Give the backbone structure.
Amino acid sequence: METQKDRQHRFSLPRLHMVSNSPEHRYPANELPGLVREITSRIPAVIQLREKHLAAKSIYDLAMAVRGSIADSRSLLIINERFDITLSAGADGTHFPGNSCPLEKARNVARDPVMGKSVHSLQDALTAESEGADYLVAGPVYETPLKRQYGPPLGPELLETICSNVSVPVYAIGGITPKNARQCLEQGAHGIAALSIFRSEANLCDTLESFNRVLKQCS
Amino acid sequence: MLMTSPLFCCITAETSCPVQQAEKALEGGATMIQLRRKLASGSELYTWTEKIQKLCRRHDAVCIVNDRVDIALAAKADGVHLGQEDLPLEAARKLLGNQRIIGVTVSTVTEAKRAERQGCSYAGLGHIFPTVSKKKSSEPVGLKRIREISAFLTVPILAIGGIGTDNVCEVISAGADGIAVISAVSEAADPVKAAAELLKTMQTCSRNP
Protein backbone atom coordinates (compact mmCIF):
# COMPACT_ATOMS: atom_id res chain seq x y z
CA MET A 1 0.00 0.00 0.00
CA GLU A 2 1.14 3.49 -0.85
CA THR A 3 2.57 5.35 2.13
CA GLN A 4 2.37 9.00 3.09
CA LYS A 5 5.88 9.41 1.64
CA ASP A 6 4.90 7.88 -1.70
CA ARG A 7 1.93 10.20 -1.95
CA GLN A 8 4.08 13.19 -1.05
CA HIS A 9 6.17 12.39 -4.09
CA ARG A 10 3.13 12.13 -6.25
CA PHE A 11 1.47 15.29 -4.97
CA SER A 12 3.56 18.26 -4.17
CA LEU A 13 1.45 20.31 -1.82
CA PRO A 14 1.13 24.02 -2.64
CA ARG A 15 2.05 26.26 0.28
CA LEU A 16 -1.07 28.40 0.20
CA HIS A 17 -4.28 26.73 1.40
CA MET A 18 -7.55 28.54 0.88
CA VAL A 19 -10.60 27.35 2.80
CA SER A 20 -13.68 28.28 0.84
CA ASN A 21 -16.37 29.37 3.21
CA SER A 22 -17.46 29.97 6.76
CA PRO A 23 -20.87 30.55 8.27
CA GLU A 24 -19.67 33.91 9.59
CA HIS A 25 -18.41 35.20 6.25
CA ARG A 26 -20.74 33.52 3.85
CA TYR A 27 -20.73 34.39 0.18
CA PRO A 28 -22.69 32.88 -2.68
CA ALA A 29 -21.27 29.55 -3.81
CA ASN A 30 -21.51 30.63 -7.43
CA GLU A 31 -18.82 33.26 -6.82
CA LEU A 32 -16.36 30.57 -5.91
CA PRO A 33 -15.21 29.36 -9.35
CA GLY A 34 -14.29 32.93 -10.30
CA LEU A 35 -12.45 33.48 -7.04
CA VAL A 36 -10.57 30.20 -7.44
CA ARG A 37 -9.57 31.15 -10.97
CA GLU A 38 -8.29 34.49 -9.68
CA ILE A 39 -6.20 32.87 -6.97
CA THR A 40 -4.83 29.90 -8.87
CA SER A 41 -3.86 31.99 -11.87
CA ARG A 42 -1.50 33.91 -9.58
CA ILE A 43 -0.20 31.27 -7.19
CA PRO A 44 -0.54 27.49 -6.83
CA ALA A 45 -2.93 26.79 -3.99
CA VAL A 46 -4.82 24.11 -2.16
CA ILE A 47 -8.48 24.98 -2.59
CA GLN A 48 -10.46 23.39 0.20
CA LEU A 49 -14.17 23.29 -0.57
CA ARG A 50 -15.86 23.68 2.77
CA GLU A 51 -19.53 24.45 2.30
CA LYS A 52 -21.15 22.85 5.32
CA HIS A 53 -24.48 24.55 4.71
CA LEU A 54 -24.92 22.95 1.27
CA ALA A 55 -26.52 19.58 0.49
CA ALA A 56 -24.26 16.90 -1.02
CA LYS A 57 -25.58 17.34 -4.56
CA SER A 58 -24.80 21.07 -4.48
CA ILE A 59 -21.31 20.41 -3.13
CA TYR A 60 -20.76 17.86 -5.88
CA ASP A 61 -21.93 20.32 -8.56
CA LEU A 62 -19.78 23.07 -7.06
CA ALA A 63 -16.76 20.74 -6.92
CA MET A 64 -17.16 20.02 -10.64
CA ALA A 65 -17.38 23.75 -11.39
CA VAL A 66 -14.40 24.63 -9.19
CA ARG A 67 -12.33 21.80 -10.64
CA GLY A 68 -12.86 23.34 -14.05
CA SER A 69 -11.83 26.77 -12.82
CA ILE A 70 -8.46 25.81 -11.36
CA ALA A 71 -6.05 27.65 -13.53
CA ASP A 72 -2.86 25.62 -13.15
CA SER A 73 -2.03 22.00 -12.70
CA ARG A 74 -0.05 22.53 -9.50
CA SER A 75 -3.13 23.59 -7.52
CA LEU A 76 -5.19 20.94 -5.73
CA LEU A 77 -8.90 20.70 -5.07
CA ILE A 78 -9.65 19.24 -1.64
CA ILE A 79 -13.18 18.54 -0.38
CA ASN A 80 -13.97 19.03 3.30
CA GLU A 81 -14.88 15.74 4.98
CA ARG A 82 -16.99 14.14 2.22
CA PHE A 83 -14.52 11.77 0.58
CA ASP A 84 -17.42 10.30 -1.40
CA ILE A 85 -17.69 13.65 -3.18
CA THR A 86 -13.89 13.75 -3.62
CA LEU A 87 -14.00 10.41 -5.43
CA SER A 88 -17.13 11.17 -7.45
CA ALA A 89 -16.06 14.62 -8.57
CA GLY A 90 -12.48 13.59 -9.32
CA ALA A 91 -11.06 16.01 -6.76
CA ASP A 92 -7.50 15.62 -5.48
CA GLY A 93 -8.20 14.95 -1.85
CA THR A 94 -10.21 15.27 1.34
CA HIS A 95 -9.75 17.40 4.41
CA PHE A 96 -10.99 15.83 7.64
CA PRO A 97 -12.17 18.16 10.41
CA GLY A 98 -11.46 17.27 14.02
CA ASN A 99 -14.75 15.41 14.56
CA SER A 100 -14.75 13.53 11.26
CA CYS A 101 -15.06 9.90 10.32
CA PRO A 102 -11.71 8.23 11.23
CA LEU A 103 -9.16 9.01 8.53
CA GLU A 104 -7.68 5.51 8.55
CA LYS A 105 -11.13 4.02 7.83
CA ALA A 106 -11.56 6.38 4.92
CA ARG A 107 -8.08 5.42 3.68
CA ASN A 108 -9.15 1.78 3.47
CA VAL A 109 -11.70 2.66 0.82
CA ALA A 110 -10.08 5.71 -0.81
CA ARG A 111 -6.42 4.84 -1.29
CA ASP A 112 -5.24 7.43 -3.77
CA PRO A 113 -6.48 10.88 -2.83
CA VAL A 114 -4.60 13.20 -0.49
CA MET A 115 -5.99 13.25 3.04
CA GLY A 116 -5.43 16.06 5.50
CA LYS A 117 -6.57 16.59 9.05
CA SER A 118 -7.28 19.55 11.31
CA VAL A 119 -5.36 19.42 14.57
CA HIS A 120 -5.51 21.59 17.66
CA SER A 121 -2.74 20.07 19.80
CA LEU A 122 0.49 18.07 19.59
CA GLN A 123 -1.42 14.93 20.55
CA ASP A 124 -3.94 15.52 17.73
CA ALA A 125 -1.04 15.97 15.32
CA LEU A 126 0.74 12.77 16.32
CA THR A 127 -2.51 10.79 16.11
CA ALA A 128 -3.38 12.24 12.71
CA GLU A 129 0.06 11.44 11.33
CA SER A 130 -0.10 7.86 12.59
CA GLU A 131 -3.57 7.46 11.04
CA GLY A 132 -2.04 8.29 7.68
CA ALA A 133 -2.71 12.01 7.18
CA ASP A 134 -0.71 13.46 4.29
CA TYR A 135 -0.75 16.96 5.75
CA LEU A 136 -2.04 18.72 8.85
CA VAL A 137 -3.78 22.03 9.35
CA ALA A 138 -2.77 23.24 12.81
CA GLY A 139 -4.50 26.04 14.61
CA PRO A 140 -5.73 28.42 15.57
CA VAL A 141 -2.22 29.87 15.73
CA TYR A 142 -3.37 33.42 16.48
CA GLU A 143 -6.46 34.89 18.08
CA THR A 144 -9.40 34.86 15.69
CA PRO A 145 -13.12 35.21 16.35
CA LEU A 146 -13.93 32.39 13.91
CA LYS A 147 -11.93 29.79 15.79
CA ARG A 148 -12.75 30.55 19.42
CA GLN A 149 -14.66 27.29 19.74
CA TYR A 150 -11.35 25.47 19.47
CA GLY A 151 -9.97 27.06 22.63
CA PRO A 152 -7.07 29.45 23.14
CA PRO A 153 -4.67 29.95 20.23
CA LEU A 154 -1.69 27.60 19.91
CA GLY A 155 0.71 30.48 19.48
CA PRO A 156 3.92 30.21 17.45
CA GLU A 157 5.63 28.06 20.11
CA LEU A 158 3.16 25.20 19.99
CA LEU A 159 3.08 25.46 16.21
CA GLU A 160 6.85 24.96 16.26
CA THR A 161 6.48 21.93 18.58
CA ILE A 162 3.95 20.35 16.23
CA CYS A 163 6.02 21.02 13.12
CA SER A 164 9.17 19.56 14.63
CA ASN A 165 7.41 16.40 15.85
CA VAL A 166 5.74 15.30 12.62
CA SER A 167 7.22 14.58 9.22
CA VAL A 168 4.17 15.53 7.14
CA PRO A 169 3.65 19.12 5.93
CA VAL A 170 1.83 21.43 8.36
CA TYR A 171 -0.30 24.42 7.39
CA ALA A 172 -0.76 27.14 9.99
CA ILE A 173 -4.33 28.45 10.29
CA GLY A 174 -6.16 30.98 12.42
CA GLY A 175 -5.60 34.71 12.19
CA ILE A 176 -2.97 34.40 9.45
CA THR A 177 -2.06 37.56 7.56
CA PRO A 178 0.77 38.30 5.13
CA LYS A 179 2.42 40.02 8.12
CA ASN A 180 2.52 37.05 10.49
CA ALA A 181 2.86 34.36 7.81
CA ARG A 182 6.64 34.68 7.96
CA GLN A 183 6.65 33.81 11.65
CA CYS A 184 4.62 30.63 10.95
CA LEU A 185 6.98 29.56 8.19
CA GLU A 186 9.98 30.23 10.41
CA GLN A 187 8.43 27.91 13.02
CA GLY A 188 8.54 25.12 10.45
CA ALA A 189 5.11 25.37 8.82
CA HIS A 190 5.06 24.15 5.22
CA GLY A 191 2.46 26.75 4.37
CA ILE A 192 -0.41 28.84 5.59
CA ALA A 193 -4.18 28.35 5.44
CA ALA A 194 -6.89 30.97 5.67
CA LEU A 195 -10.58 31.60 5.08
CA SER A 196 -11.80 35.14 5.13
CA ILE A 197 -8.64 36.86 3.97
CA PHE A 198 -9.35 35.74 0.42
CA ARG A 199 -12.73 37.41 0.41
CA SER A 200 -12.01 41.08 0.03
CA GLU A 201 -11.68 41.08 -3.71
CA ALA A 202 -10.36 44.63 -3.87
CA ASN A 203 -7.23 43.52 -2.05
CA LEU A 204 -7.03 39.97 -3.30
CA CYS A 205 -4.29 40.78 -5.74
CA ASP A 206 -2.21 42.53 -3.07
CA THR A 207 -2.87 39.82 -0.51
CA LEU A 208 -1.71 37.08 -2.86
CA GLU A 209 1.31 39.11 -3.91
CA SER A 210 2.29 39.61 -0.25
CA PHE A 211 1.90 35.91 0.54
CA ASN A 212 3.86 35.03 -2.55
CA ARG A 213 6.71 37.27 -1.46
CA VAL A 214 6.84 35.78 2.02
CA LEU A 215 6.67 32.23 0.72
CA LYS A 216 9.53 32.87 -1.70
CA GLN A 217 11.67 34.41 1.03
CA CYS A 218 11.05 31.50 3.40
CA SER A 219 11.67 28.59 1.07
CA MET B 1 -26.66 -8.73 2.45
CA LEU B 2 -29.99 -8.52 0.65
CA MET B 3 -33.15 -6.81 1.68
CA THR B 4 -35.54 -9.30 3.20
CA SER B 5 -39.28 -9.39 2.87
CA PRO B 6 -41.35 -7.91 4.39
CA LEU B 7 -39.59 -4.60 3.97
CA PHE B 8 -39.95 -2.85 7.25
CA CYS B 9 -37.57 0.06 7.64
CA CYS B 10 -37.20 1.99 10.88
CA ILE B 11 -35.48 5.35 10.52
CA THR B 12 -33.77 6.82 13.57
CA ALA B 13 -35.28 9.99 15.02
CA GLU B 14 -33.18 13.04 15.89
CA THR B 15 -33.71 12.53 19.61
CA SER B 16 -32.10 9.89 21.88
CA CYS B 17 -29.35 7.41 21.05
CA PRO B 18 -29.79 5.97 17.53
CA VAL B 19 -28.13 2.70 18.52
CA GLN B 20 -30.72 2.12 21.22
CA GLN B 21 -33.48 3.09 18.81
CA ALA B 22 -32.14 0.54 16.31
CA GLU B 23 -31.87 -2.13 18.97
CA LYS B 24 -35.53 -1.76 19.93
CA ALA B 25 -36.76 -1.55 16.34
CA LEU B 26 -34.86 -4.74 15.46
CA GLU B 27 -36.21 -6.50 18.50
CA GLY B 28 -39.67 -5.59 17.29
CA GLY B 29 -38.94 -7.04 13.85
CA ALA B 30 -37.55 -4.23 11.68
CA THR B 31 -35.76 -5.67 8.64
CA MET B 32 -33.95 -2.44 7.76
CA ILE B 33 -32.51 0.36 9.88
CA GLN B 34 -31.77 3.72 8.32
CA LEU B 35 -29.42 5.88 10.36
CA ARG B 36 -30.55 9.44 9.80
CA ARG B 37 -29.05 12.18 11.97
CA LYS B 38 -28.73 15.41 10.07
CA LEU B 39 -26.84 17.28 12.79
CA ALA B 40 -24.38 14.61 13.89
CA SER B 41 -20.62 14.77 13.27
CA GLY B 42 -18.86 12.32 10.96
CA SER B 43 -17.21 10.76 13.97
CA GLU B 44 -20.55 10.06 15.68
CA LEU B 45 -22.10 8.75 12.48
CA TYR B 46 -19.20 6.40 11.90
CA THR B 47 -19.40 4.97 15.42
CA TRP B 48 -23.18 4.55 15.31
CA THR B 49 -23.10 2.94 11.87
CA GLU B 50 -20.57 0.33 12.96
CA LYS B 51 -22.69 -0.55 15.98
CA ILE B 52 -26.03 -0.61 14.16
CA GLN B 53 -24.49 -2.66 11.34
CA LYS B 54 -23.47 -5.32 13.89
CA LEU B 55 -26.92 -5.32 15.49
CA CYS B 56 -28.55 -5.68 12.08
CA ARG B 57 -26.37 -8.65 11.21
CA ARG B 58 -27.52 -10.41 14.37
CA HIS B 59 -31.16 -9.85 13.36
CA ASP B 60 -30.75 -10.69 9.65
CA ALA B 61 -31.61 -7.08 8.90
CA VAL B 62 -29.77 -4.47 6.84
CA CYS B 63 -28.25 -1.15 7.87
CA ILE B 64 -28.25 1.85 5.59
CA VAL B 65 -27.04 5.41 6.15
CA ASN B 66 -28.99 8.50 5.11
CA ASP B 67 -27.13 10.77 2.68
CA ARG B 68 -23.58 9.95 3.83
CA VAL B 69 -22.07 7.63 1.24
CA ASP B 70 -18.68 8.37 2.83
CA ILE B 71 -19.80 6.97 6.19
CA ALA B 72 -21.42 3.93 4.56
CA LEU B 73 -18.15 3.18 2.74
CA ALA B 74 -15.90 3.70 5.75
CA ALA B 75 -18.09 1.74 8.17
CA LYS B 76 -18.99 -0.92 5.58
CA ALA B 77 -22.73 -0.43 5.93
CA ASP B 78 -25.11 -2.38 3.70
CA GLY B 79 -26.05 0.74 1.82
CA VAL B 80 -27.35 4.28 1.75
CA HIS B 81 -30.57 6.17 1.36
CA LEU B 82 -30.38 9.21 -0.89
CA GLY B 83 -32.75 12.15 -1.09
CA GLN B 84 -33.08 14.19 -4.26
CA GLU B 85 -30.57 16.74 -2.86
CA ASP B 86 -27.94 14.16 -1.96
CA LEU B 87 -25.09 12.75 -4.03
CA PRO B 88 -26.39 11.76 -7.49
CA LEU B 89 -27.44 8.12 -7.61
CA GLU B 90 -25.12 7.26 -10.51
CA ALA B 91 -22.13 8.63 -8.61
CA ALA B 92 -23.11 6.72 -5.47
CA ARG B 93 -23.57 3.50 -7.45
CA LYS B 94 -20.05 3.79 -8.85
CA LEU B 95 -18.62 4.11 -5.35
CA LEU B 96 -20.71 1.41 -3.69
CA GLY B 97 -20.70 -1.18 -6.48
CA ASN B 98 -23.63 -3.24 -7.64
CA GLN B 99 -24.16 -5.32 -4.53
CA ARG B 100 -24.96 -2.66 -1.99
CA ILE B 101 -28.34 -1.14 -1.31
CA ILE B 102 -29.12 2.34 -2.58
CA GLY B 103 -32.57 3.62 -1.77
CA VAL B 104 -33.80 6.85 -3.29
CA THR B 105 -36.55 9.18 -2.13
CA VAL B 106 -39.10 9.77 -4.89
CA SER B 107 -42.40 11.57 -4.87
CA THR B 108 -43.30 11.67 -8.55
CA VAL B 109 -43.53 9.23 -11.46
CA THR B 110 -40.64 11.00 -13.21
CA GLU B 111 -38.37 10.68 -10.18
CA ALA B 112 -39.30 7.01 -9.78
CA LYS B 113 -38.51 6.24 -13.41
CA ARG B 114 -35.20 8.04 -13.25
CA ALA B 115 -34.19 6.36 -9.98
CA GLU B 116 -34.90 2.93 -11.41
CA ARG B 117 -33.07 3.67 -14.65
CA GLN B 118 -30.03 4.83 -12.67
CA GLY B 119 -29.92 1.68 -10.59
CA CYS B 120 -31.65 2.23 -7.27
CA SER B 121 -32.37 -0.82 -5.10
CA TYR B 122 -35.68 0.49 -3.86
CA ALA B 123 -37.77 3.63 -4.14
CA GLY B 124 -38.77 5.36 -0.92
CA LEU B 125 -42.08 6.89 -1.94
CA GLY B 126 -43.58 9.65 0.13
CA HIS B 127 -44.83 11.23 1.95
CA ILE B 128 -48.03 9.23 1.60
CA PHE B 129 -50.02 10.77 4.46
CA PRO B 130 -49.52 13.97 6.45
CA THR B 131 -46.59 13.50 8.82
CA VAL B 132 -45.07 15.11 11.86
CA SER B 133 -41.56 13.60 11.65
CA LYS B 134 -40.19 15.71 8.82
CA LYS B 135 -41.14 19.25 8.02
CA LYS B 136 -42.76 19.09 4.63
CA SER B 137 -43.51 21.93 2.29
CA SER B 138 -45.25 19.73 -0.26
CA GLU B 139 -48.64 18.01 -0.11
CA PRO B 140 -48.85 14.28 0.68
CA VAL B 141 -48.75 12.18 -2.50
CA GLY B 142 -51.51 9.83 -1.32
CA LEU B 143 -52.31 6.20 -2.13
CA LYS B 144 -52.99 7.09 -5.75
CA ARG B 145 -49.27 7.73 -6.36
CA ILE B 146 -48.40 4.27 -4.99
CA ARG B 147 -50.80 2.73 -7.53
CA GLU B 148 -49.39 4.82 -10.38
CA ILE B 149 -45.79 3.96 -9.61
CA SER B 150 -46.24 0.30 -8.64
CA ALA B 151 -47.84 -0.23 -12.04
CA PHE B 152 -44.47 0.05 -13.78
CA LEU B 153 -41.67 -0.02 -11.20
CA THR B 154 -39.78 -3.30 -10.85
CA VAL B 155 -37.73 -2.39 -7.77
CA PRO B 156 -39.54 -2.50 -4.40
CA ILE B 157 -41.51 0.52 -3.23
CA LEU B 158 -41.09 1.55 0.38
CA ALA B 159 -43.95 3.82 1.40
CA ILE B 160 -43.12 6.52 3.93
CA GLY B 161 -44.95 9.30 5.73
CA GLY B 162 -47.66 9.07 8.35
CA ILE B 163 -47.95 5.29 8.25
CA GLY B 164 -49.18 3.37 11.32
CA THR B 165 -51.17 0.24 12.19
CA ASP B 166 -54.38 2.00 11.19
CA ASN B 167 -53.39 2.60 7.56
CA VAL B 168 -50.52 0.23 6.74
CA CYS B 169 -52.83 -2.17 4.90
CA GLU B 170 -54.02 0.66 2.66
CA VAL B 171 -50.48 1.31 1.42
CA ILE B 172 -49.71 -2.39 0.98
CA SER B 173 -52.90 -3.03 -0.95
CA ALA B 174 -52.15 0.03 -3.09
CA GLY B 175 -48.96 -1.72 -4.20
CA ALA B 176 -46.21 -0.79 -1.73
CA ASP B 177 -43.74 -3.58 -0.95
CA GLY B 178 -43.02 -2.28 2.50
CA ILE B 179 -42.98 0.73 4.76
CA ALA B 180 -40.56 3.10 6.42
CA VAL B 181 -41.40 4.84 9.67
CA ILE B 182 -39.72 7.27 12.03
CA SER B 183 -41.86 8.42 14.92
CA ALA B 184 -44.36 5.53 14.81
CA VAL B 185 -41.63 3.35 16.33
CA SER B 186 -38.85 5.53 17.70
CA GLU B 187 -41.15 7.89 19.54
CA ALA B 188 -43.65 5.29 20.73
CA ALA B 189 -43.94 4.70 24.48
CA ASP B 190 -42.88 1.11 23.84
CA PRO B 191 -40.90 1.02 20.58
CA VAL B 192 -40.41 -2.77 20.59
CA LYS B 193 -44.14 -3.33 20.89
CA ALA B 194 -44.96 -0.62 18.36
CA ALA B 195 -42.60 -2.18 15.80
CA ALA B 196 -43.94 -5.69 16.47
CA GLU B 197 -47.54 -4.56 16.06
CA LEU B 198 -46.79 -2.73 12.82
CA LEU B 199 -45.03 -5.77 11.42
CA LYS B 200 -47.79 -8.10 12.49
CA THR B 201 -50.45 -5.89 10.95
CA MET B 202 -48.43 -5.54 7.76
CA GLN B 203 -48.15 -9.32 7.44
CA THR B 204 -51.92 -9.70 7.62
CA CYS B 205 -52.51 -7.16 4.83
CA SER B 206 -53.35 -8.58 1.45
CA ARG B 207 -51.76 -7.01 -1.58
CA ASN B 208 -54.01 -5.79 -4.37
CA PRO B 209 -57.23 -7.31 -2.94
